[in-house]
Every structure is written in structure tokens, then in C-alpha cells.
Amino acid sequence: KVLGRLENNAASSLRGVAFRGLQLLLFRVVYSLLSGRPILIDKIRPDDDSPGLKEHETLLLKLLNNISNGTQTEINRTGTRLRFTAGMLLGGEASLNCGLTRCISLYLEALLLLSPFCKKPLRVKLEGITNAPREISVEAILTTLLPVYTKFVLNDEDLDIKIVNRGLLPEGDGKLIFSTPIVKKLRPVQREKVGNVRKVRGTAWVTKTGIGVCAHRLVDGAKQVLRGYLTDVYITVDQRKGAHGGK
Predict the structure, then answer these.
(1) Is the pTM of this model over 0.90?
(2) Beta-bridge partners for 89
(3) 112 partner at 20 to 30 Å CA-CA among 54, 63, 104, 136?
(4) Which of 72-81, 155-164, 195-204 has the highest mean pLDDT?
(5) What is the DSSP secondary-structure string of the chain?
(6) How many Cβ atoms sit within 10 Å of the Cβ of residue 176?
(7) CA nearest to 43, candidates 85, 16, 81, 74
């Protein structure tokens, strides 16, 4: 009986997990890589005017192929069916033009989840849009996810997100470099108290315009609102000119 159960478990592991629809695609492919289990996703936007995977979703799959070895991605002709077979996470150097449909932060989130388990230090150059309406900005990941990341890793010496160019809609041309060290061991973290908000840090950024025109007005406006709740508010100004301001 025990042998039969082991054989059934092994067979189900090889078959993988089946999903319907495209909810949580990023987490499904990331967890597939981490667990080594293949996944099958069916009925991907079957009733849309343009059914199947979108450009940013295929680019995400391409990025995961670039940092792994042996990963196989099979998409049918209409793009409504995806089979993702995980390979081995390697890391190393990679680059990707993320297009203009989604913000770079989408790809950055996947890399952050996978980077502690790569065999080589990760250094990825991403090009596209760094800041877009109704999407998580690169600064948000830099100031919120990285501090959480460092609580789990012992070595954060080479951990960095460097914004080289800032790119906005509609033409983008933003560039950033994401690098992480080798993580040999993850430490457990236990948080029992939520705590209080005691300080606020922020960035007011402008591209191809004077600092006094917009940035300081942004800083003053934010401080007027926030200082009604707490006094420790500090906002820096990031001004980008020329090519560093994108297109």
C-alpha cells in the first residue's frame, strides 16, 4: 500500500497541477519553478476579442526561461492553453525589454521571489516603463519589498535595485539593474506585533523639467497632509534630465 501511494504521488507530481483561467499567473509559474511541479493552464481569455496570453505575460515566461535551465513553455496556436514545465533555477546575468504594456515592477516582483533560490548571483537588466498609473512603481518595491527581503537573508551586501533611466508612458525607455547575491541559507522570521507608523519616507520624482516647478510642490503638498498625523516626514527629490529621463 505504501509503495502504491508513493507511485501515485510521483505520477501526480509528473502530471502537475491544472488550472483554469489566468488569475495569479505570476505566482503560479513562480511556485512551479520553486516546487519543480509542472502546471497546465487552460481557457485563457477564450471569449475575449483577442483571446490568449498578452504580450507582458509571454515576456514574463521568457524572463523565467532566461534565469533557469531546462524550463519548457508550450503554448497552443490561439494562446488559450499553456503548459509550463519547470527547470532548474540558475540565476546569472540576463536582460529583457519589458515592452510598453506593463510596468517593470511586474517582472521585478517575480525576480525577487525567485532570487534567494538561484545557484548564481542574479544580475538582470530590465528596460521599459518604471512608473505607470494604477501599477506598483519601482520605488514601492524598493522601499517596501526589499526591507522584507533582507529580514530573510543573511547576506544582503550585493542586493540592489538601481534605476538608470526613468521611463514613462507612452514611449518608456526606462532602465534598471536588479542584482542579488547568493543566498546559502534563509533565516526564519516571526512577527507578533503589527506596530505603529512612526515615520514616512518618500520620493518626489520629475523628468525633463525643473525641480522647482513640480517636485517641491509635490513635497510640500504631501507634507501638509501627512504632518497632520505625524511629524517625522522626509521626502527626497529625484530629477532626471536628458536620456536618464526616458522618452
Answers:
(1) no
(2) 68
(3) 54
(4) 72-81
(5) -HHHHHHHHHHHHHH-EEEES-TTHHHHHHHHHHHT--EEEE-SSTTSSS-S--HHHHHHHHHHHHTEES-EEEE-TTS--EEEE--EE--EEEEEE--SSSBTHHHHHHHHHHGGG-SS-EEEEEEEBS--TTS--HHHIIIIIHHHHHHHBS--TT-EEEEEE--BTTTB-EEEEEEE-----BPP-----------EEEEEEEESS-HHHHHHHHHHHHHHHHTTT-S-EEEEEEEE-GGGG--
(6) 24
(7) 81
Q: Which three cell numbers stand for residue 7?
A: 507511485
Residue 14 pLDDT = 52
Beta bridge partners of 127: 97, 175
**Can you read off the three cell numbers belonging to residue 131?**
512608473
Torsion of Cα atoms, 22 then 70 then 110 then 101, to 10°: -60
148-175 in b/e form (b: 16+ CB < 10 A) is ebeeebeebeebebebbbbbbeeebbbb
Would you state the cell numbers that stand for residue 1, as one nine-digit string?
500500500
Residue carrying C-alpha cell 527547470: 87
